[in-house]
Design brief:
The structure is a single chain. It is built from 9 helices and 8 strands. By secondary structure, the protein is an alpha+beta fold. The chain has a single domain, classed as DD-peptidase/beta-lactamase superfamily (Beta-lactamase), CATH 3.40.710. A 6-stranded antiparallel β-sheet has the order 1-3-2-8-7-6, sandwiched between helices. The protein has a two-stranded antiparallel sheet with strand order 4-5. A hairpin with a 5-residue loop joins strand 6 (about 220-230) and strand 7. The longest helix is centred in the last third of the chain and has 19 residues, at about 265-280. The chain is globular. The two termini are about 25 Å apart.
Length: about 325
């Protein structure tokens, strides 16, 4: 690593450590959810809902930071929400929005994706390429992206100003809706477009497949996108969103977090929640995806937002 990057990382780590000496308990993420209150409902399966509520709270016990959770399972009707309307900087999970908007635009224009669009979408999702994301964001334009969000029915997602897509504000509830575009929960994309989007998210490279896949059983396929970005306020934003298919069911898991003292800490919090959800929805099935070893979690930001102090400058 170049000396100037090493120096920058050291300075950021020191600043975040100072800012997070008194972290916010994750279990107190939302005043509207008093300790012990049910986080989940599941139609007539009250046992599943109660057990999942308890397991999610247990996964968050003793964890610092601010965490929001949204879960939906098509088979049982399970819905879980914890601080699902709390706003976060989206970091690289905004790339799912861009991909979906590009697919919708192609559909409206009665054509398939162009070669140019495909060459931006694939690396943007599978390797989290930021140059590809910036070009696609500029090509789609603020007005079209805002119109797409309205069509999907998001209520609290606001696009980043000056083209700063990584600072798009979003909530777990809105991210769950955006995942629903790909799983067919909302009538926005045709089946072929949905399948294309899910395929990109299933092929995210190995070192970026941490987060919500943790604890998923064999025979289930993960379609995910993550975001990881430190800022002077709220420390590390560490997010993971994913749709899971297989075994005759589809379910979605969204975990957004900030106030994390490090990326690894945020990843571990997310993975503890994901384990609880996968275990509850797949009783009796062997676990196929373990927790990500901390030695495999990089502390290098995803690069989805500029360095502090440059947020208000328009891109060159």
């Amino acid at each position: 690593m170049a000396p100037h990057l090493r120096k920058c990382r050291t300075a950021v780590a020191a600043a975040l450590t100072t800012a997070l000496l008194a972290p916010i308990p994750a279990t107190a993420a939302e005043a509207g959810h008093p300790q012990g209150a049910a986080l989940c409902t599941a139609g007539r399966d009250r046992t599943l809902a109660a057990r999942m509520s308890q397991d999610i709270r247990a996964a968050l016990s003793s964890r610092a930071g601010t965490v929001s959770v949204a879960v939906h399972d098509t088979r049982t009707g399970l819905v879980c929400e914890l601080a699902s309307r709390r706003r976060y900087d989206s970091a690289s999970v905004a790339k799912v929005l861009m991909m979906e908007a590009a697919l919708r635009r192609a559909q409206e224009w009665r054509r398939g994706l162009t070669g140019w669009e495909h060459r931006r979408i694939r690396p943007m999702i599978t390797t989290s390429d930021n140059v590809a994301a910036q070009r696609l964001w500029s090509d789609l334009g603020y007005s079209y992206l805002a119109r797409f969000l309205r069509r999907v029915g998001t209520t609290a997602t606001t696009l980043g100003s000056y083209g700063r897509w990584g600072l798009t504000g979003t909530t777990a509830a809105d991210q769950l809706r955006l995942l629903g575009v790909l799983t067919g929960a909302h009538d926005v994309l045709r089946p072929g477009s949905r399948a294309y989007g899910l395929r990109q998210m299933a092929e995210v490279r190995r070192d970026q497949r941490w987060g919500v896949p943790a604890g998923m059983p064999r025979g289930v396929r993960a379609h995910l996108k993550n975001g990881w970005l430190p800022r002077a306020t709220h420390g590390w934003r560490v997010h993971s969103v994913g749709a899971f298919t297989g075994g005759g069911r589809t379910y979605r898991i969204v975990v957004l977090s900030h106030d994390n003292p490090s990326m690894a800490y945020g990843v571990r919090t997310i993975e503890r929640i994901a384990q609880a959800v996968h275990r509850g929805l797949n009783k009796g099935r062997g676990v196929g995806r373990p927790l990500t070893p901390e030695s495999e979690i990089s502390e290098v930001p995803d690069g989805s937002a500029p360095a502090e102090g440059k947020d208000r400058e328009p891109p060159a």
